[in-house]
Specification:
8 strands; alpha/beta; 4 helices; six-stranded parallel β-sheet; Rossmann fold; two-stranded antiparallel ribbon; globular
Length: 218
C-alpha cells in the first residue's frame, strides 16, 4: 500500500496491553506475544513522537476470572449484567510484576497510561470504554484535548483488546489503523468455524479500520 506519512502533531501510537501477563510465561499468554516489543520500540524511535499505553489492571476476584465463578473454567462464557463475558485465567493483577508494562518497552514518548478493568464488576477490553459500552476510560477526552486525529493501534491481543479499541476509535471519529506486525492475537475458535481473529478483522474493515504494517509508516 502507499506509504503513510506520520504527522507528529495529529498522529499517535496506541500501545495496547504490552504486559508480561499476556506474554509467554504469563498468566494469559498470547503465542509470540513478546515479539511485539521490538517493532513497537522501532516505531517509538522513528515516526511517532507521541504514544499512549494501556494496562489491564484487575483486582483479585475480578468478574472476568474463572476462579471467581465456582464450577466454571477458563474460556467458559457466562451471562453478566452487561452481556456475555468470556472467563479468563487470573491475569493483570494490580501491582503485580506481570501487570506492569513490559520492562523492555521504551516509554519516553508515552504521554498517558490508561488502566482498564479496574472496576470489579465490569471487564474492559477497549482503551476507550469498559465492556458495558457506557463507562468511559477518559482516553477520548485526553486525545481530543491534545489534538490527535489519527490513531495507530498495536499490541495484545489483536483480536480482543486491540480490536475493541480500534472499533471504538473508529466509532468516535478517529481515522484508525491497526498495525498487524506489531500485534499478536489469541485466535480462539469462533462462530461459524471462524477464529476470533477472522471475525475481528471483518468487523473492523466494515467500520473503516485500515490494516497496515510497520514498513508502511514513515
Amino acid at each position: 500500500m502507499t506509504r503513510i506519512a506520520i504527522d507528529p502533531a495529529t498522529d499517535i501510537l496506541g500501545i495496547i496491553d504490552v504486559q508480561p501477563t499476556f506474554m509467554p510465561g504469563g498468566e494469559l499468554a498470547v503465542a509470540d506475544g513478546d515479539a511485539v516489543v521490538a517493532p513497537i520500540n522501532r516505531l517509538l524511535a522513528g515516526p511517532f513522537q507521541h504514544a499512549f499505553a494501556t494496562q489491564d489492571w484487575h483486582a483479585p476476584g475480578h468478574i472476568s476470572f474463572a476462579s471467581s465463578h465456582p464450577g466454571r473454567a477458563p474460556y467458559d462464557v457466562i451471562d453478566v449484567p452487561y452481556g456475555q463475558q468470556t472467563l479468563w485465567p487470573d491475569h493483570g493483577i494490580q501491582e503485580s510484576a506481570s501487570a506492569a508494562l513490559h520492562p523492555g518497552l521504551a516509554q519516553a514518548r508515552i504521554g498517558v497510561i490508561v488502566r482498564k478493568g479496574t472496576f470489579q464488576h465490569i471487564d474492559s477490553y477497549s482503551a476507550f470504554f469498559e465492556n458495558d459500552r457506557k463507562t468511559p476510560t477518559g482516553l477520548d477526552g485526553w486525545l481530543r484535548a491534545r489534538g490527535f486525529k489519527r490513531v495507530f493501534l498495536c499490541g495484545l491481543a489483536a483480536d480482543f483488546c486491540v480490536a475493541w479499541s480500534a472499533e471504538d476509535a473508529a466509532s468516535l471519529g478517529y481515522e484508525t489503523y491497526m498495525i498487524e506486525d506489531a500485534s499478536r492475537g489469541v485466535a480462539m475458535p469462533g462462530p461459524g468455524n471462524r477464529t476470533t481473529m477472522d471475525l475481528s478483522r471483518g468487523r473492523l474493515i466494515e467500520r473503516g479500520v485500515r490494516f497496515v504494517r510497520c514498513a508502511d509508516l514513515g
